[in-house]
């Protein structure tokens, strides 16, 4: 579904991504994990079309989205991204925010679609609230509902839980596991927390210093870790 091949990105003298190749099958939840600064967000931004590679290509369902120095515009990529800080419009109600990308639908269909999404994310009661009037966890659900609204083929999330407290992070992990499977999307999820990733990923992609160190199921990876960083996570328990 997603095919990343030989991707390299340099910023000045620094090679932030070095010859990264990765294939994700349709419907898979893939988590990119690695220490801070290893290039995870840079990789996700390239997939989203917010940045261009120096070398390599990105393709989705056989269509090239990025090649050296070139990138198809983000809104033409059939994907949506959820950011760490949610990026909700402060003056819009939850219902307006979630329905924002649905202007092609008539009022009635849009309302039906938005209410179904609010229900799925368990935020129906908040439809008329502003982002400032709801909690961080609820804001995160709004951001995810908005990203799902246009039914993208690919859902990208960059550290979506890092602004939440520990208790809420643990709850959201469980919720993600159910949610990602129920929507049937291909998901590319970035986190610096491998235990968070392991709690719902089909496949873990371990990055270090701009390169992919290991790819595998959480079980396979923790059973025979190829990186010291993963090996130190002894007694893995999600
Ligand atoms: P991660 O998300 O894994 O924490 P990033 O992809 O954000 O890492 O960053 C990887 C490296 O690339 C960091 O050293 C960062 O400073 C550098 N970097 C990222 N974006 C830019 C940019 N636009 N210009 C210069 N350096 C950048
Ligand atoms: Mg990052």
UniProtKB/TrEMBL annotation:
Cellular component GO terms held in the UniProt record: ATP-binding cassette (ABC) transporter complex
Sorted UniProt keywords: ATP-binding, Cell membrane, Ion transport, Iron, Iron transport, Membrane, Nucleotide-binding, Transport
The protein's name: Iron(III) transport system ATP-binding protein/putative spermidine/putrescine transport system ATP-binding protein
Residue intervals of the ABC transporter domain: 2-234
Molecular function via GO: ABC-type ferric iron transporter activity; ATP binding; ATP hydrolysis activity
Family: Belongs to the ABC transporter superfamily.
GO biological process, one term: quaternary ammonium group transport
Endpoints of the signal sequence: none
Residues of the full protein shown: 1 to 238 of 357
């Amino acid at each position: 579904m997603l095919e990343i091949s030989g991707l390299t990105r340099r910023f000045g003298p620094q090679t932030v991504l070095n010859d990264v190749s990765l294939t994700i099958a349709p419907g898979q939840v893939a988590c990119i994990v690695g220490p801070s600064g290893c290039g995870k967000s840079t990789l996700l931004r390239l997939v989203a079309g917010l940045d261009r590679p120096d070398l390599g290509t990105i393709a989705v369902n056989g269509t090239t989205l990025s090649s050296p120095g070139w990138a198809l515009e983000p809104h033409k990529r059939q994907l949506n991204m959820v950011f760490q800080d949610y990026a909700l419009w402060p003056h819009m109600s939850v219902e307006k925010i979630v329905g924002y990308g649905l202007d092609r639908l008539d009022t009635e269909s849009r309302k039906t679609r938005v209410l179904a999404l609010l229900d799925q994310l368990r935020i129906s009661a908040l439809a008329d609230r502003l982002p400032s009037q709801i909690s961080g966890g609820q804001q995160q659900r709004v951001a995810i509902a908005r990203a799902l609204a246009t039914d993208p083929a690919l859902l990208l999330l960059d550290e979506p839980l890092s602004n939440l407290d520990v208790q809420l992070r643990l709850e959201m992990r469980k919720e993600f596991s159910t949610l990602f499977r129920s929507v049937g999307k291909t998901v590319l999820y970035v986190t610096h927390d491998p235990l968070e990733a392991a709690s719902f990923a089909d496949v873990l992609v371990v990055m270090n210093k701009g390169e992919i160190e290991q790819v595998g199921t959480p079980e396979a990876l923790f059973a025979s870790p190829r990186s010291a960083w993963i090996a130190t996570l002894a007694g893995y328990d999600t």
